[in-house]
Amino acid sequence: MDRRCLKCDHLNRAADGGDLEACPKCGAIYSRVEATAAAKGIEAVRRPRREPTLEAPTDPAPIFSDRVELSSPHGSDLQAYAAVMRGQSLYPTFRGLVQLGYWVGIVLAVLCALAGFLSPVFGSGSDRVLGAIGGVFFALFFLISAKVAREMSLMLADLSDAAVRLAARADR
Predict the structure, then answer these.
(1) How many Å separate Cα 33 from the centre of its chain?
(2) Mind listing the pLDDT tens digit for each residue in 25-51?
């Protein structure tokens, strides 16, 4: 049975029609809200509803700083906006640890590359070739892993920052 809450206008498709059934969104008990509304002669409390859209917000500027004007969605202004947002991050410690992990990965890549290049000089027999191939392989592995892990972690922090900013903007 479908039941619409008179307090918050939420449509409950799983309503069972019980006397003490409550709205899952606002917690109001349907029968009490309906009795109060009938006693006051109120049909329903209608609040303007914002329909969710898949469009990007028209004002993507950070709420805690001066506005950054975006002239084109693919231009350098978008990069400037991302730089401003990252500079005012709510998670600076996390971003610092991500950078530290990135540089540890780069150092490991350099050490593996160095070992790969030195193995033909100091190795003997088949160790020369296998050491060079292994060193280059692991250097590439650590380099790519460090870059991908850094980018994924920073995207996560960017998403968290953006979600907090959007929630703060919606509460204004």
Answers:
(1) 38
(2) 888 888 888 888 787 776 655 555 555
Summarised one tens digit per residue, pLDDT across range 85-107 is 777 888 888 888 999 999 999 99
**Cβ contacts of residue 30 below 8 Å, gap of 6+?**
3, 5, 6, 15, 21, 22, 23
Largest CA distance in the chain: 96
